[in-house]
Design a protein that fits this description.
Elements (H helix, E strand, L loop, with lengths): L15 H17 L14 H16 L11 E4 L5 H8 L6 E5 L2 H28 L7 H12 L1 E4 L21 E5 L1 H6 L15 H5 L9 E6 L4 H8 L5 H7 L4 H4 L1 E8 L5 E3 L2 E3 L3 E9 L4
Parallel strand pairs: 1-2, 1-4, 2-3, 4-5
Antiparallel strand pairs: 5-9, 6-9, 7-8
Helix pairs in contact: 1-4, 4-5
Amino acid sequence: MASKPTHLEPSELGTREYWDNLYTTELTNHAHDPSDTGTVWFDDSDAEAKVIDFLEAFAAPAAGLAAGGATTSFLDLGTGNGSLLFGLRDAGWAGRMLGVDYSRRSVEFARRIARSRSRSAGKKAEEEAEEEEEGKEGTGEGGEEEAEADVEFLEHDILRTPPSALLSGAQSRGWDVVLDKGTFDAISLSSETDGNGRRVSESYKARILPLVRDDGGLFLVTSCNWTEEELRGWFVNSKGEEDEEEEEGEDEETRAWRFEEVGKVEYPSFSFGGVKGQTISTLCFRKVRNPGR
C-alpha cells in the first residue's frame, strides 16, 4: 500500500480568484481575436493529444468502451476552456460530454468557444449544402443550436456540491470516463480546509469516486505537481485510509468502491543527479468493488 504524500505549500493557483481573473483575461482576448481560444494546459508536453491517443489505444478497450463510441460519456473536472473535450469530439468520440468548473468565467469562456465552433461548423455545412445544390436554408443557425448542446458546460464546485448533482439519466450510476487535467493540482494548492480541519485535497478522492461509473468506469488524472508514485498515494487506498474513512462517516455505497491503476501515459523522461523523472504524470484508474463489500 502507498502512503499519502506530504501536502504542498498553498499558493494563489489554489484560489477561485486567480482562475476568475485568468479567464476574464482570456475572455477579453477571445473577444478581440476569436481564434485565440486560451491556454492549453501541459501543451509543452503534448498532454492533451497523448491522453486522447491513450484512451483510444488502451484505456477504452480495457474498460470495455469502443473507441469513438456513440455512447461513451465523459465528465471533465475543472474544464477550463473545454479544450480536452473539444479534442475528444474532434477525434470522433460522439457520446455525452460535460465540462464543469467552479469558475463562472471559465464556463462562460468554454461556452463562447463552443458557439464559435458551432458557427464554423454551420458555415461549413452550409457551404457543402450549396455545393450539392440542395438549397437548404438555415443550416448555419441549426448547426449552431446542435453544436451548443454537443458539449455541455456547467458551473459546479466539486468540493462543495454533492456528487449527485452530476448523476442523472444515463449517468445516474456514474460517467464512463472522468478526466482531471490539472484540477487536483490546483486543489492541492488551496489552503482551505474541510469540516474536519483537513486540507480540501484530502476529500477529493471521496468526492470524485461516485462520479465514475460503477464496475469499470475510468478516472484519468494528469499532474505537474505530483509524481506517478505520489498520485498512487492519493488515489489508491493508502495504509490505514479505509479505517480513517470509516471514522469520518462516509456512506456505505462510497466505501464499497475503490480505484485500481490500469495504465499510464508515457511522456519523455530526463535524468538529473542519477534520478530519472518527467515534467508531468498521467495515471489511469478503474473503479472496482472493494473485496467483501
